[in-house]
């Protein structure tokens, strides 16, 4: 699938790290480093603008290495970029660690996955079909 993109950053376009990767890394497009205090959040701009086909979304997700090693994650994970959005892609990062974290220009701060989605139409009914699970949720299937 071809997707139109405008790159106003000085960084390379997002790309797949391996042939089987689902996500492409998004890089910070900064004029100066940004330090994120513990429990603070910020929107990191990427300099990227995309035009997705209708029926697709871009999901912005945390990078596992940043999350595991530094406690940095995407606050609204996954963030959704709709097909009709034409603004700059921004990543809402939060620092869940106890240490300040400095984001450098060009740093890989999140990953983006392009996914197909459907539009549904609600059908109001008086009852739903029974299932083996029923209304069980929030751990009802056990912990092991």
Automatic annotation (TrEMBL):
Its cofactor is Mg(2+). One of its GO terms (molecular function) is dUTP diphosphatase activity. Keywords: Hydrolase, Magnesium, Metal-binding, Nucleotide metabolism. It holds the Pfam family dUTPase. InterPro entries: dUTPase, dUTPase-like, dUTPase-like_sf, dUTPase_trimeric. Pathway: Pyrimidine metabolism; dUMP biosynthesis; dUMP from dCTP (dUTP route): step 2/2. Coiled coil: none annotated. Substrate binds at residues 63-65, 76, 80-82. It catalyses: dUTP + H2O = dUMP + diphosphate + H(+). It is an enzyme of class 3 (hydrolase). Its EC number is 3.6.1.23. Residues 12-142 form the dUTPase-like domain. GO terms for biological process: dUMP biosynthetic process; dUTP catabolic process. Belongs to the dUTPase family. This enzyme is involved in nucleotide metabolism: it produces dUMP, the immediate precursor of thymidine nucleotides and it decreases the intracellular concentration of dUTP so that uracil cannot be incorporated into DNA. This is Deoxyuridine 5'-triphosphate nucleotidohydrolase. It comes from Salinimicrobium marinum. The gene is dut.
């Amino acid at each position: 699938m071809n997707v139109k993109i405008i790159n106003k950053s000085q960084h390379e376009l997002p790309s797949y790290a391996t042939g089987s990767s689902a996500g492409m890394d998004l890089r910070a497009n900064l004029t100066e480093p940004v330090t994120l205090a513990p429990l603070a959040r910020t929107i990191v701009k990427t300099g990227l603008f995309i035009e997705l086909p209708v029926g697709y979304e871009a999901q912005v997700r945390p990078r596992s290495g940043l999350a595991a090693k530094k406690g940095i994650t995407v606050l609204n994970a996954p963030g959704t970029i709709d097909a009709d959005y034409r603004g700059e892609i921004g990543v809402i990062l939060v620092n869940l660690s106890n240490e300040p974290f400095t984001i450098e220009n060009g740093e890989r701060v999140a990953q983006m996955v392009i996914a197909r989605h459907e539009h549904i139409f609600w059908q109001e009914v008086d009852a739903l079909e029974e299932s083996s699970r029923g209304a069980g949720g929030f751990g009802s299937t056990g912990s092991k």
